[in-house]
Amino acid sequence: MPGIHHVTAIASDPLKNFDFYMRDLGLRFVKKTVNFDDPSTYHFYYGDEIGSPGTILTFFPWAGAPAGRRGVGETHQAAFRVPLRSLRYWTQRFIEKGIPHEALEKRFGESVLPFTDPDGMALALVGVAHVAFTGDLAEIGVSVLPGHRGSGIGSALLARAADHVRNRFVTRLFMHCLAENATMLHIARKLGMKICVNTGEADAFLKLSPADPASVAGEFVDQRLALFDYALKAQAMQFKRIADDQGAREPER
């Protein structure tokens, strides 16, 4: 299998570790087993909603273990990908939960929110604004400016995203939002997504039909029409700006 299957770290208190990654970060508890070299020690597995390979973070909790020290050149931070729009929510959540964190920063052009777990392990949330792919699953985030809401843009964007990922061999579409975001949940239901609400947050899932020649051709035509429409509107706005500038320069009579 190409890529990383999982990353393993050491924890001290198993209950604090479980509470932090399950309740504070909202990861799924994929399974609990033991360290086969030391069967008296638990082995906790956390991951995404389906335990996809590559999303798994595991821990050996050893009660009373001393804090580790970061060595020169050592990989010392684990990063989680989240929708870009959610970073404000996570910053507020860290404040409310008393989770040590740093200010937002930029790394390689991405917004990053660094923080630490109860044992001081360095973690980070990396905000992504595009469709994120994980195997046959795609996660989408939709955000519409306040002045343009209520005009069907959100529904159109979500439907466009579903067509886009379907034609790239994705079979499942996923979206996450707060349970209080009634507008986003309404848009998800209109597309036929299944909604799961848990502890103030909501996950939406949609099973996609396999791509076919009609869906690929339809996406291509829709994209060309959208680009043509945008070009016409951009040109109209340019003509309007020119006319407004000329009108402003004319002297009053």
Helical content class:
25-40%
At CATH level 2, the architecture of the largest domain is: 3-Layer(aba) Sandwich
CATH topology of the largest domain: Aminopeptidase
Distance separating the two termini: 78 Å
CATH superfamily of the largest domain: Gcn5-related N-acetyltransferase (GNAT)
Number of discrete helical segments? 5
Radius of gyration: 23 Å
Q: What about the largest sheet?
A: 5 strands, mixed
- State the total count of DSSP E strands: 13
Name the shape in a single word: globular
Q: How does the helix and strand content classify structurally?
A: alpha+beta
Task: Name the poorly predicted regions.
Answer: none
Number of domains: 3
Average pLDDT taken over every residue: 84
Strands in their spatial order, largest beta sheet: 9-10-11-13-12
Strand content: 25-35%
